[in-house]
Every structure is written in structure tokens, then in C-alpha cells.
Amino acid sequence: MNDQVILALFLVLGSVAAQWSLPPSTSSVATGQPTQQSSNNYAYNNGFSFLAVDGNEDTNFYHGSCTQTRAQRNPWWMVDLRQAYTIYSVKLVSTVFPRNTLENFRIEASNDTLTWDSCRSHSGRMVSTWQLFYCTRNLIGRYVRIQRQDYNQLTLCEVAVNVQT
What we know:
Blueprint: H1 3-19, E1 26-28, E2 35-37, E3 67-68, E4 72-73, E5 76-93, E6 103-110, E7 117-125, E8 130-148, E9 151-152, E10 155-156, E11 158-164
């Protein structure tokens, strides 16, 4: 290669690299925190809201590590992070059972549980049993809520809230 080609390649790669930025340092803060949900489906002694932040990503509801509401309009689940954070992304783990797969939902954050700001909306089904959703903007909140936008059950096997550190 001649010197001009090498220099041109260096300049192009350098300008592309300058436009990229590394993601901020993040950590998950939801595990073990207090939770609530709009209703409880206690089938098989499962379905409790705290099961979505127990650190167990098992996607089989019958193994006892997933939360589930009753079928209702716009069911929701919420975690209290106990302090406000800048929320970067939310990892959701759903169930392997197609009938209860997470679909048509919003991820929201609040400081007071009265007013909610959108992190991300998702229509249709998740593409796999787990998916990482990046907030569309910087969002500061103490509470994070997952809410379906239809009439159905809400089933979550794990929720990880990643915040900027």
C-alpha cells in the first residue's frame, strides 16, 4: 500500500471512531428491591411480584421464579429503587410459554408514582425470552413500571434496571 492510501484509511477510520462513544458505566439496581403489581395470579403458589427481582432468570413459570397478574386491562408491575437514578436500560426476561409471552407494553419511570415518563414502548411480542431495552432519552426515576397496553396477564421472570454510575 502506498502512503496516500494508508493516510486516507487512517483519516476515515479516525473520523468514524470519533463519532462513536462508549456506553456509560452502568449497574443493575433492581434485584431485591420492593415491588408491587396490579393484581396477583397465585396459580401453583407462583405469581408474586417480588419474583421478578429475585435474581433468577428461569423462564419456566412453573419453577416458581416468575411473577404474573390476573388477566385484566393494562396490567402493571413496578419496582421501587429506593432512590432516584438515571436509568439507562431495562432488561426484561419473559416466560417460555407463548401464551404468556410479554408483548404490547411500556417501560416507564417516576419519582412519585403519580406522573410517569416513558423509557420505551414495544408493540408486538419480544423477539426472545429476554431482551434489553434502552431508554430513548436520559430518564431519572425512583420507580420503574412495566405496563401492558391490552387486556391480558402480565408475566415477568426477571427485571434488571441498569442505571448510570
